[in-house]
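Q: Got a minute? One more chain.
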Amino acid sequence: LGTQARSVFVGGLRLPEITAMTVEKAREFCEALRLEGYKGEIAARIVNEVSARLRFLANVGLDYLTLDRSADSLSGGEAQRIRLASQLGAGLVGVMYVLDEPSIGLHPRDNRRLLSTLCHLRDLGNTVIVVEHDEQAIWAADHVLDMGPGAGIHGGRVVAAGPAATVAQHTESLTGQYLSGRRAIALPRTRTSADGRPALYLYGARGNNLKSIDVEFPLGLMICVTGVSGSGKSTLINDTLYPIAARRLHQVHIEPKPYAEVEGIQWLDKVVDIDQSPIGRTPRSNPATYTGLFAPVRELFSATQEARSRGYMPGRFSFNVKGGRCEACQGEGMIKVEMHFLPDVYVACDLCKGSRYNRETLDVKYKGKNIAEVLEMTVEEARAFFDPVPAIATKLQTLMEVGVSYLKLGQNATTLSGGEAQRLKLSRELSRRDTGATLYILDEPTTGLHFHDIEQLLRVLHRLRDRGNTVVVIEHNLEVIKTADWIIDLGPEGGAGGGRIVAVGTPEMLAADPRSYTGMHLAPVLARHAPKESPAICAQRA
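A: Always. Here it is, folded:
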């Protein structure tokens, strides 16, 4: 802002000082603002409008954000909820809203407020369609469409439809089985104890809203870091713990957020951050190339009698090098058409028809399939196809275990969601040898996962733990939290009201702590194990 704009005061504050506030603080400021005379008359309508929009932001769980927060620093879930809040302010009627997993990144406490907001949108006379795996959201819906019964080739049809209670009783619905409690993610029979174990100690963490906290991470456990949205979880783990460990163990030059001291790094030999960033930004990257699966597949094709007779080496079956690839599209399978004043359009290559390879390369077949047909297989189909080849079957089995059996081996990496990219990274780590002294860090790995997929994922994470590794998970999903060995709960609120350790201990210890919002929501889950009903979020439509 220019000098003149920065010279205007409202309620004793300038605009930069107001925009530096969180949504909650700005709302309190507006409600407490008292302007006299003509100033009050001019400002009344404006202040009411601003207060209403701030209230909408708070209702969708964003009261911890500062008003001057850069848009590119927002998560996908936060950006989506800001757009939702703007629609609430518009007051439109007769609109169909489509939301894709709006509960991502929300604590169960904040999720209830979001669902109440969606119900309010419906009550205004709108239609709200939500793609969601969250149990609270499913029970809050007036009508549920359950797709399946499985993923990929095993899905694609409506298994059950109707109110959640009807879906819960449907025998073929996997979702219904979990809703009714006929099937459940079980509690571990025993939890790995923190007693007598070496630990990693982080002292004086004070980045962003952290209040110079001291944190103990018992090693060899599955640890969940919990807390309401904006409580400081990502700052503690992604911005402080991971950079410290990466600098010490791998000499990576990442600057951690401020802290005083760290102890216990000597017990670790590796740290791996399995985040949701893309595995590749070009069509040349895919699940087969990223997981290392493509190399043994190419070697297998080059070992066929046809390939040997032609003198083809493994490189012949790569779409990244000259020789075997289609030169018209240079192995991309697509041709970019530049459009003036419009986004570029990609069309299938006329020469190779999208296969990426030239005709000579496609003549070579293994068990009746050429290399392009293999890349078109899903992970599940490829697992059966390559069952006699251990080097390939083992990697494919790991991909199935992390819940991506429906992905195609050659699927463009740019089409993968953040959750899918994260599970591919997890699969790659599982395929590697570990020494039992690795620190794995995962940020909300259940994003986009059904109850059944979460159950599979937990088996994988517990297996990493059982090898002696430490698994630190930032998570809101109570089904994951209840299976943890140890929980570190931050809060009590988001933004300036957070950044403190509220409670630490086992899930049972947290559930008994009245100070913890996480414990408050965790207690009934531990008590019933398999929830048969959910408390009403908003009034159901007849």
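A: The longest strand covers residues 199-205.
Q: Perfect, thanks.
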